[in-house]
Amino acid sequence: MTAQETASFGYEDIPADEKEGRVGAIFSNVARKYDVMNDAMSVGMHRLWKDKFVRRVRPKEGETILDMAGGTGDIAFRMAPSGAQITVSDINQDMLDVGIERAMKQGLDGLVWSCQNAEELSFGDRFFDAYTIAFGIRNVTHIDQALAEAHRVLKFGGRFFCLEFSTTQWPGFSEIYDAYSHKLVPKLGQMIAGDEESYRYLIESIRRFPTMPEFEGMIRAAGFRHTKVEPILGGLVAIHSGWKV
Q1: How would you write the chain as a 3-class SS string?
Q2: The CATH classification of domain 6-243, taken from the options 3.40.630.10, 3.40.50.1470, 3.40.50.720, 3.40.50.150
Q3: Is the pLDDT of residue 1 over 60?
Q4: Has this prediction a pTM greater than 0.70?
């Protein structure tokens, strides 16, 4: 008898085949309040992080870009003025529905919205010039498979960019942030979204995510070269990048 494969779900280890459904239920629950909670949890700083992320991507007119785990459209909306052809994908249709509504209100009708599993993309090989994923890859069951798919769908010369929480290395700040995130963020989730447990999971999932060097190693193992890590706030957040060559 072989041991059952497990996956992290916050601080809990669960059967791997259960994670997708449980994460999906969380994002369906919080979809309508997701952007408001991002502002509350980060005191608005997530907007600056995303601005910086898109500056690193440098989208160009005529490029094809896959924004994976693009959900409510925050990254795609920032890239849209470049003239790039952007496909916003997410495994959760409820999150995409919120993004589509936001796009309609802003008059952005040039985006493509596609429900996709990051581990099994339906796109052909060498299809995109760039692949972006912001605050989404830690929720994937098999991160290595998602990275392999990102590599597969990129053209040669294509670039990979990931914005994700990590572990800050600033002395003192990490302790303050730990106390804030574990004690206050779930309470904010209850006050604003009526859902304490979902935000408890989201915070715990950050703690279980690989360190910056470990995740960079996973990106290299997927076949990317010229990888780079750019810590923000000492590594509280990091921009990871690599090229398919």
Answers
A1: CCCCCEEEECCEEEEHHHHHHHHHHHHHHHHHHHHHHHHHHHCCHHHHHHHHHHHHHCCCCCCEEEEECCCCCHHHHHHHHHCCEEEEEECCHHHHHHHHHHHHHHCCCCCEEEECECCECCCCCCCEEEEEEECCHHHCCCHHHHHHHHHHHEEEEEEEEEEEECCCCCCCHHHHHHHHHHHCHHHHHHHHHCCHHHHHHHHHHHHHCCCHHHHHHHHHHCCCEEEEEEEEHHHCEEEEEEECC
A2: 3.40.50.150
A3: no
A4: yes
